[in-house]
Structure formats: C-alpha cells, structure tokens
Design goal:
It contains 53 helices and 12 strands. It has about 1200 residues and is mainly alpha-helical. Strands 9-10-12-11 form a 4-stranded mixed β-sheet, with helices on one face. The protein is elongated. GO terms for molecular function: ligase activity; ubiquitin protein ligase activity.
Length: about 1200
C-alpha cells in the first residue's frame, strides 16, 4: 500500500521521456528509443574502423613483403651480374680491373647489393678491395679529381667500416676467411684514405675511429692484429695527409679512440704518427664547442649502433682522453723536454678543460690506474708548472691563469708546490719586458672593470659574483679558458665586451700567488715595498724585491678585498638567490631542511650521478666551472688576514682603514641586538641538526690528516679510495650534504655573524668585546636557568628549582666545590675539577686550606674564585724545560713542543703505561685550556702573556671554512720568528742566498729535534734534564735523500716552519684548544686577532685612566662616603699620589690590588669585583695590604702624601701582600 499525504493509496504513474532504462542493472544497449539507436551507431562505426585498420595493415604487410622480395630478387640479380664479371670470386691475390670504368661500375654495384651479415657478400667486399688495391698498384686507378670517383670511394669506405663493425661484434665466432678479410679491409681503408683524405676526414672520420675503437679489446687479446701492420697503418691513415679537414679527423681520433685506455704498444705506434699540436688544438676546439643536437655528417652512425651526440659525456672517457693527450705530448718530446709544450696554448687549453671537467675523479683514478697517475703527475712538476706564466701576451696570461687555477683546484695536496713553481718560474723569466708575475698580474688586475667597480662600491660585487647555473645539456663542458670559444654557460660581459670570467681568473691567480709570497716573506721584506722604508737597502733578494708591492698599492688592494669579502659574507642571500631560504623559514622546519628520512632516499637515488663532492651544487662563481663561492671567500679572506696580521704587528695602515663604511655596516641602533639574535638562531639550528662524531684528539700514532697534506705518500692516498661498504659511503654523503646545507643556510640568514667570524676587523674592537660579553651572558642565562648570580644559582640548585641539564641538589653543588692547598693549587684543581668538563662554566666554590688541612677564614663570594683562577694560571704557566709551557726571548708563553716527545722516550709510548702518561699530559693541557676559558667566561683578567703565533691558533679555530681546532692555522716564516729568532734568521739567509744552496749549505729535507730526556716520574720537577737529538724526515719517505737546492728551498723553509709551529706541538695545542673550546665557543674567539685575544685575556696596554678608576671605586669602613658626598682625606691623598705616579708604578699598584697590571677592556666599570679601598687602622708605620680575591686595598690612614707615597711604592715594588699586614 502506497501512502501519500492525499490519502490515496494508488502509486502515481512514472513517465520516462529520456529514453533511458531506469534499471541500473540492465545490460548496455538494451535501452529503448534514441539511446539504443546511438549505441548501435557507435558499434557499427567501431566495426567499420576495425575493418579499415585490418585492411590497411594487410596492404602494408603486402607492400613490405613485395618490396623485400623485390629487393631480394634485384640484389640476387646484381650478385649474379657482379659475380659474372668477377670470375671465381677469390679473395686473395686479386687481379686488377681491366680499366677504371669496370672498377667504378663494380664498386657502385657492390655498395648497393651488400648485406654485411651474409658470408657471400662479405667475400665480395674482400674481393673488390683486393682487386682495387691491385689496380692501384698497377696504375689502373688512382686519385681522381671530381666526377663520380670521390663519392664512390667514400661509399666503399663506409661499406668497409660497416663490415669491420660487424666483424668486431662477432669476432669470437669468425672463420679464418673473415679474419684474413679484416686485414684486407684495413689495407683498403689505408688506400681509400690516401685517395680521398679530405672526404675521409670531413665525412666519415668519426665513423672511422668509432669502428677502429671496437678492435682495441681484440688487439689486447689476439695476436692476429698485431703481427701485420695493416691495423696500425689504418689507424693513422686519416692523419697522414694534411688537408683543410684534418682537424676534424684529429677531433674524431680524440673523441672516439683516445677516450679509451689503449695498449701501450698500440699507443706508442699511434703517438709516433700523431701531430701533438694538431691533436691538442682539436681537443681544445671540441671541448670549447657546443655539441649540436643532430649528428654531424661524419659522425658514427651505422646499422649496428646508434649515433653518439656527445661521446665525451661519460666522465671516465674524459679521464682516458686526458691521460692519452698528455702521453702523446710527452712522447712527441721524448718524455723529457716538457718546457717545449707546457706553455703551448692548445696543450694548456685541452688539458685544462679536461682536468676541470673531471676534477673530482682525478685522485680516485690515480689511486688504481698507474698509467693515468704517471701522466697526471707529469703535469705538476717544476718544469711544467714553472713555465706556465711565461707568456708574453695578455691573452696567453689569461689562458694560463685559468689553467693554473685548475691545477690548484685538482691537485690540492700539491698546492704549495704549484704555487712555488709558479712563483719561481715567473721570476726566472722576469728579465723580459713583463717583469715578475706578481707585479704583472697586479697591473692587469688594477685595470679590470671588476677591480675598479668593487673598489669604488662594495655593492658592485653582487652582479659580478652572481652564481650561474650550468646547462643540463652538457653540464660537464668547460668553456674556453681564454673566453674566446663558444660556451654553454651565459656569463656577464664588461663594457669592453670581454668576458668577466677572464678577469676573475686573473684576479684569483694573483691572489693565489700573493698568498704564497706573503707566507714566505718576512716583515722586513714586506715593508721593503715602501719607497721610504729603511729596510729597502738591506740584504733582500732581487726576487723578493721584484714581488713586493708598494705599501700604497697594498692599501688599495685591501680596499678591494675588503669590499669584495664583505659582500660575499653580508650579501650571500642576494648572490646565491632566495631559493636557499625557500625551505625552513622557521626552526620547526629545519629538520626537514637539514635531513630526515628523505635525505637517505635522496642520497641513494643520486649516488651514481654524483661522483664527487664538487658536483653536489651545480653552481659556479661568475660562470667559472668549479670555482665555488666558498673557494673565493677563503682565498680573499686568507689574503686579507695575512695583511691584517702584518698591520697588527707593525702599523702601516690607518686604524680606520679596516672598518667598513657606515653606509654598509652601521654600528648605530640595534646592531649588537641583531647579532645576538642571529647567534640565538644558530644555536636553535644546531640543536635540531644531527651531532656529528669527533675524532680522537689524542691520537698518538700520527698527526692530523692536514698536517702532512703536501707530503702524503701515494700509497696512503690510494688507501683512501679503497672500496668501502655502501652504508659507509651513504652515511658519509648524508653528513656532507647536511653539513653543506646547514652551512649555506647559516651564511644566508646570519650575515653579521659571518662577518664577525671571518672578517672581524671590519667592526670596531670595543663593539666586538660587547658582543662577546653578550654571548657569554646569554650562555649563562641558558645554562643556569636564568640565574646569572652565583648565589641565586646555588640556591636554585639546592632547592630543586631548576630544569637544566644538571641533576641538582647537594651532589651537584659538591661537584662544583673543591678544597685547594695553597702550594698545590694546579694539582688539586686538576684532580677535583677535571670531571666537570664544560660544567666548569657554572659557578665554583673554593675553600683554601694550609699544609695542615686547616681551612682559611672567609667565605667565597666570588673573590676567592678569582684568586683561585689567578693562582692556577700563575702556577701552571710557570715556564721550564719539563713544564707544560715554555717562553721565548720576549717571555711570551707557548706549549712546550718537546714535552710529548720527551715523555714518549722516557716512557715507552708503545706500552699501555706510556700511552696513559701521554694521555694524562694531554688532559692537563686540556684542563689548562678550560681554566683560561673560565677566566674569559667570567671576565677575570689574568697576568699571562702568550706568544702571538699560539694566540693566532685560537683565532683561526672558528668561522666558516676553517677546520676544527688547530688545523685552521697555517704556519709561516713570520710566526717562526716569534718562536726561535735564530732559526728565523738562518732560514731568511737561506731564502735570500745568492749562491749555490746545495753546495754551500749541504742540507736535506730533515730536521733535528732536541729532546730532553726525562726520568719517571715526569712531572715531579726533581729531574735533571738531559737532551737527545732526533732526526725526522720532512718529506717521507725520501726526505733524507732529497737535497735542498735553489729550486726547492722555499718548500724546505715552509716545511721547517710547519714542523716547528704545527706538527711537533700538535697534540699539546690540540688538547689545549679542545679545553678552551669546551668553555668558550670557537666562533666567539674568531672575532679577535692574536693581539686582541691577549687584550681580552689580560686587559689593555693603554695608559691607566685614573679618573675612570676613581669614579668606579667602592669604599668601606671609615673611608665610606657619607651623606655629604665627600671623600676621606686619606682617600683624596691616595688619588693625588696616583695621579702623580708614572704609568709603570700605577700598573704596579693595580697589579698589587687586582693581580693584573692591565685595565679591563670596557673600563673599570666592568671590573668584577669592583676596585675597593677600606681603612686599615691609624698606624702610619704599617704598609698597605690587599685582598686580591676581592680587589680590595687596605690603606692605613696616613697624614701626609709623602708617607702614603713611600709606603705604597715600597709595598708594590716588594711584591709582597699578606705578609706586610
């Protein structure tokens, strides 16, 4: 029953006017009306289309079959016709054709009927070639100019190549007749090449050498090709006759045959017939051109293989081509006279382009391929490199500059050698019109648009530095090194129309050379560049004078480098583009930006296509392939730092010269706050990034990898490229990618921090000190949960109101408390505080006890901690032959370089006990680093003076591009002067000696170390040291057999400086810097140079500001200032006496009270605790006394200035303190 609101139970009638079947389950096509008609029409149309397609397919099959059958019949008819004229078809001892007409007809017929897969057709080809050669020998045919003959020869040559390609593919299954026939074909190819050399080179040369390359593996495994000379003759036939298209033949030889490793005997044969200059020119042209999208007419294209549009797209083929090209040049000059070709434009262009395209694979290939290693090693010797910069023209100089940069980038381990050879080679030819390379390149640099624009305005560097992405089509291709050839990379051009790339290469080569010159040049020689310098006429070598720039031009150079470096750091986001910020705009998304599950997949997916780290970022500076922004930044910053260090030692530039203009870097407003915010962001980024492992800092078996990078034995280098598990490779690549990504991100979002860490001299020193104290304050807030005051922190720890990383309560506080004996401050401190690690940053509490373990009166409110730190430093840094530190002639401290060696000989370092003693000593160095860091952290000044070269290692441990710990430091001759004046003078004499160094000095690449012999216990202080000399190899394993000559003396000087300053004290310095870095972040230290670090640690050397000290002095007892605001009479007399004293006596008074003679960097308002004076009774016979722990002067109430002055000076000059009370 159907219910409705109307009350009727009848179902209303359904009227369907659409023609659709309302049943959803009905079969298709069962509808009614026009729907059924449409379905039927569609079905009929589909049937008719299927019938037409079937009919067309049948017709096509019939056409193909009829055509094939017809062609088969026609070819059979032609074969019968051809065989009828040829006779018995013998392939041996061919009978000459009766006339040239018969020969031409048979050749035309043959090329149309042959199918290389048929045995009979191949026999016909052998017969025709035999008869053609016989006809040529009899004079029946020859070279024909014009007419049908050239194309007939060309078609026959292509047919021979097709047959040879088929034979090479099926060589293992060939019969004797085909093997003999291959020799006939090789002979025929030689003849055809001589008949039509131009067409062969221009039309089929690539096909020609592509086919011959198929026989190289056969040559290695079969003696059949070696016995006759047919193959080798065919190999060089297209190169025999010089024609206009011969360069095309040489290009085909390079891209098809020489891009594989040939057997040595075959390579010797080919090299004897190859013109090395033509080969170099062809390779250079190929590498400088843009490969066409369609195959060229002469390109390899056969029935048996597809054409290769870019045969050198495989990097391993380019490696083989590089080795073969170098070998051909060496062979042409009997493997001896490398000077004859090392400065050849074509050789430099070809080898430089190839090297640049495979830079990341050269070292790995050398590790397992002896032939490749032999050829590439020949590129970096004194003769090859020394002659590079001898070109007379500007274009030559620009080309060779690009090649020199490539050598420096590819052969990084021989970087110092290459720079030295360039330096010596350029000076050996400086007698010409050009002069020394340094001055020549400097003159060129000064006239470039890049230099002039950037010197005027630092913002002008941005368009010149814009990173240019590579093209996908041939991203491996290196543009022409001289900038004249076509290029796939769009580069900016200057107003004169020359490519900016050429100018950049000149600038970078100049900076590379000048970096080396600064490294080996003493300060006296450097300042000899000034016309008014008193050292101009002193004993400096002519080479040194030729490479010294006038100080006025050095000032111009620093202006250019300062503007360029500032832009690269401050405007990084504009240079690299905004895409670096597209991911991870907030900290929450940084984990995705720096790694995660997707990184592993990405690394695995891209692993085969990224053979080296250099290709991870397919961008280059100004279009120079392989020149990354980090390389340019490191080079510019390195030169600037070296000049700045010299200016710090001996001022020759105005102090304001180093500061950046306020329009680019303003100190006004919230600059410090902006820097602090960037530091906070960096901390957050580091927290979300993965923590990378750290090597063992106490490696006793050797020094750091970087310490011997120049003299690394080849076997050790090869070991680095042994096959590692896939998991290790993947993990390493993930870490590298994550680190590089994080580095690029930080460079873009923290430009002020980048400036502070890499070019801090652009910012005033006082501003940097304030930033340093802000960093420390923020770190205190973070670590102490907001309680900077020590008492409040202890209270929070005691009552558990902390949520930090320490597990609180009395146990935690006890770790920060120590009982110290006065006579054993360092030993007790080391024993009780070593386990704290970076926890030493927290407030510590000290209780001094005497020799009877009786506690001294007093409560540590901060002053006792100051006294403890100053006592530890004064005791631990006491210099001596068996102590941790020694001093130079200026009484400046540095780690004892011979101590670890002495311990190794006193205790057998190969035993467990000996290693433990060495490790214990390294821990003491590390603990001293923590103590010094604690003083810097708390702002406590200590009276310690370190050597400048040791402080320089502190400043170079932070900043982008710097290696961890000491490896960021590079030893140089000037640093050696501060360590050993006598050794410095001797090396300087050796460097400037005009005679024969080898004959007169009789030196080799070894060094003699004087090691004190110790008796256990080594740290007792009761031993009588005895010395022993040890000879060490500076160039293992052949240093003792390598004499020091005029050519290599600069390397010897550099090796001596490296050993004395870096290698010998490596463990000591590494341990100290590790401890220092656990308290003070290395990037904070990189804001200061060596002299500024000394000021930060011990205070300023400027004359004491007595009004400032008086304004910030606190008074106690009778001397407390009352309501009237007037000072006590004795206090006024004290200040009058202080005003009248000389600065040396003022410093004695300050040291008497505060334990340091220098004022705080930010004035006495920052002295903690404050300078204080209180009364000590009315007895004028008493002397003033002090409590240095709280900076308190206890001054008796004297009645006259004379008595106060006499008593005060006696007290401060006697060096006594508590004992005068």
């Amino acid at each position: 029953m159907y219910q409705t609101f109307s009350g009727s139970s009848r179902r209303p009638r359904q009227v369907n006017l659409s023609g659709r079947n309302p049943n959803p389950f009905a079969a298709v096509g069962q509808g009614t009306g026009h729907q059924q008609a449409l379905a039927s029409a569609h079905e009929e149309r589909a049937q008719r289309a299927k019938q037409r397609a079937r009919l067309e397919a049948a017709k096509h099959i019939q056409r193909v079959w009829r055509g094939a059958k017809c062609r088969t019949q026609v070819k059979e008819k032609w074969r019968e016709e051809w065989d009828a004229k040829e006779g018995d078809g013998s392939t041996e001892n061919g009978i000459p054709y009766q006339n040239s007409v018969e020969c031409l007809q048979q050749m035309k017929l043959l090329v149309q009927l042959v199918g290389v897969q048929y045995d009979g057709d191949r026999k016909r080809v052998y017969t025709c070639c035999n008869r053609l050669m016989a006809a040529y020998r009899s004079g029946g045919v020859g070279k024909e100019e014009g007419g049908p003959w050239p194309m007939a020869y060309l078609r026959l040559e292509r047919l021979c190549l097709d047959v040879l390609a088929w034979l090479a593919e099926h060589w293992k299954h060939l019969g004797k007749e085909d093997i003999k026939g291959s020799q006939v074909l090789f002979q025929a190819l030689k003849l055809l090449c001589s008949l039509e050399p131009h067409l062969t080179a221009s039309r089929v040369s690539e096909h020609y050498y592509h086919t011959l390359a198929l026989f190289v593996p056969i040559w290695q495994s079969s003696d059949i090709l070696k016995s006759p000379t047919a193959f080798t003759a065919a190999l060089t036939a297209p190169l025999a006759a010089p024609v206009p298209s011969t360069p095309t033949a040489y290009a085909s030889l390079a891209t098809q045959l020489l891009c594989t490793y040939l057997p040595r005997d075959l390579l010797d044969t080919a090299s004897a017939a190859v013109d090395s200059q033509r080969l170099g020119s062809a390779v250079f042209a190929v590498l400088s051109s843009d490969p066409s999208k369609e195959p060229r007419e002469g390109q390899a294209h056969t029935s048996y293989g597809k054409s290769q549009r870019d045969p050198l797209s495989n990097p391993h083929r380019r490696l083989a081509l590089l080795a073969n090209v170098v070998f051909v040049y060496r062979f042409a000059h009997s493997f001896s006279d490398s000077e004859a070709y090392s400065s050849d434009r074509d050789f430099v262009g070809a080898v430089g382009s190839l090297l640049s395209s495979v830079s990341g694979l050269v070292e790995a290939e050398s590790a397992h391929n002896e032939f490749f290693r032999e050829q590439t090693d020949s590129l970096v010797d004194a003769e090859n490199v020394g002659n590079l910069l001898s070109g007379s023209g500007e274009e030559d100089a620009m080309l060779f500059a690009g090649y020199a940069l490539t050598l420096l980038r590819v052969f990084r381990r021989k970087g110092d050698d290459i720079r030295m050879w360039l330096y010596l080679g350029s000076n050996s030819t400086s007698s010409g019109s050009r002069g020394s390379a340094i001055r020549y390149f400097w003159n060129v640099v000064q006239h470039t648009t890049v230099y002039q624009a950037i010197t005027k305005d630092s913002r002008a560097a941005i368009p010149f530095l814009k990173l240019q992405p590579k093209q996908d089509q041939s991203e491996w291709r290196t543009p022409s090194l001289d900038g004249t050839g076509p290029s796939t990379t769009q580069r900016p051009v200057d107003s004169a129309g020359n490519r900016i790339t050429k100018k950049w290469e000149i600038i970078l080569v100049f900076l590379e050379l000048y970096t080396f010159v600064l490294k080996i040049m003493g300060d006296d020689e450097f300042f000899a560049g000034s016309e008014n310098s008193v050292t101009t006429n002193q004993s400096t070598s002519p080479r040194t004078r030729d490479n010294t720039l006038p100080l006025t031009e050095v000032k111009d150079l620093t202006t250019f480098l300062k503007n360029l470096g500032f832009t690269m750091y401050f405007d990084m986001s504009l240079i690299i583009g905004s895409n670096v910020l597209s991911e991870g705009n907030d900290v929450g998304s940084l984990s995705k930006h720096f790694g995660g599950p997707s990184v592993l997949a990405m690394a695995d997916e891209n692993e085969p296509s990224k053979p080296d780290d250099d290709n991870q970022v397919s961008q280059s500076v100004a279009g120079i392939t392989g020149m990354s922004i980090d390389y340019v930044k490191g080079l510019v910053t390195g030169v600037l730092r070296q000049i700045y260090e010299r200016d710090s030692r001996r001022r020759f530039l105005p102090k304001e010269h180093w500061l950046m203009s306020p329009s680019r870097l303003s100190m006004e407003g919230n600059f410090i706050q902006a820097v602090v915010m960037e530091e906070e962001s960096r901390h957050q980024i580091q927290e979300v990034s993965d923590t990378e492992g750290e090597d063992n800092p106490y490696d006793l078996d050797g020094d750091d990898d970087d310490a011997h990078e120049v003299w690394q034995p080849p076997a050790t280098v090869r070991d680095r490229f042994r096959r590692r598990p896939n998991g290790a490779d993947t993990e390493r690549r993930i870490r590298q990618q994550r680190k590089a990504s994080r580095k690029r991100y930080l460079q873009a979002v923290a430009p002020r921090l980048e400036i502070l860490q890499n070019m801090p001299f652009l910012i005033p020193f006082d501003t940097r000190v304030q930033i340093f104290r802000e960093f420390v304050h923020l770190d205190m807030l973070k670590r102490r949960n907001g309680y900077v005051d020590p008492d409040l922190w202890r209270q929070s720890m005691m009552f558990g109101s902390h949520h930090g990383s320490f597990g609180g309560g009395d146990g935690e506080l006890n770790k920060h408390h120590a009982k110290i004996r006065r006579k054993h401050v360092f030993e007790d401190a080391f024993e009780q505080f070593w386990g704290l690690g970076e926890g030493l940053k927290e407030p510590i509490q000290i209780t001094f006890v005497d020799e009877f373990d009786i506690v001294e009166a007093g409560i540590d409110g901060g002053g006792v901690t100051k006294e403890f730190l100053t006592s530890v430093t004064s005791q631990a840094f006491e210099p001596g032959p068996e102590d941790l530190f020694v001093e130079n002639e200026q009484h400046l401290l540095y780690p004892n370089p011979a101590l670890i060696d002495a311990i190794k000989y006193a205790y057998d370092a190969s035993t467990l006990d000996g290693r433990l003693v060495v490790i214990e000593t390294c821990r003491r160095y590390e603990f001293l680093g923590r103590i010094v860091g604690k003083c810097l952290y708390e702002g406590i000044l200590v009276d310690i003076s370190f050597a400048g070269f040791f402080l320089l290692k502190w400043a170079l441990t932070g900043g982008s591009g710097s290696a961890p710990r000491e490896t960021g430091y590079r030893a140089n001759l000037n640093d050696l002067k501060e360590m050993d004046e006598a050794l410095y003078q001797g090396l300087l004499q050796l460097k400037n000696y005009p005679g024969d160094v080898e004959a007169d000095f009789s030196l080799n690449f070894t060094v003699t170390d004087n090691i004190p012999l110790l008796s256990p216990p080594v740290l007792s202080g009761k031993n009588t040291p005895k010395s022993k000399t040890i000879t060490r190899d500076l160039r293992p394993p052949s240093g003792a057999d390598t004499p020091v000559t005029n050519a290599n003396r600069l390397l010897y000087i550099s090796a001596i400086a490296r050993h004395r300053l870096q290698t010998q004290p490596h463990l000591q310095t590494t341990a100290f810097l590790k401890g220092l870095a656990s308290i003070i972040q290395p990037s904070w230290l990189s804001m200061f140079n060596q002299s500024e670090l000394q000021t930060l640690l011990g205070g300023t050397q400027a004359p004491l500001n007595i009004p400032d000290l008086r304004q910030h002095t606190a008074y106690g007892g009778v001397y407390a200032i009352g309501d009237d605001g007037l000072e006590h009479a004795t206090v006024r007399m004290f200040w009058d006496v202080m005003e009248a004293l000389e600065d040396v006596d003022r410093r004695r008074v300050l040291k008497f009270v505060t334990s340091t003679p220098r004022a705080p960097l930010l004035g006495f308002a920052s002295l903690n605790p404050r300078f204080s004076i209180r009364d000590a009774g009315a007895d004028e016979a008493r002397f003033p006394t002090t409590s240095t722990c709280v900076n308190l002067l206890k001054l008796p109430m004297y009645r006259s200035k004379e008595a106060l002055r006499d008593k005060l000076l006696y007290a401060v000059r006697s060096g006594a303190g508590f004992d005068l009370s």
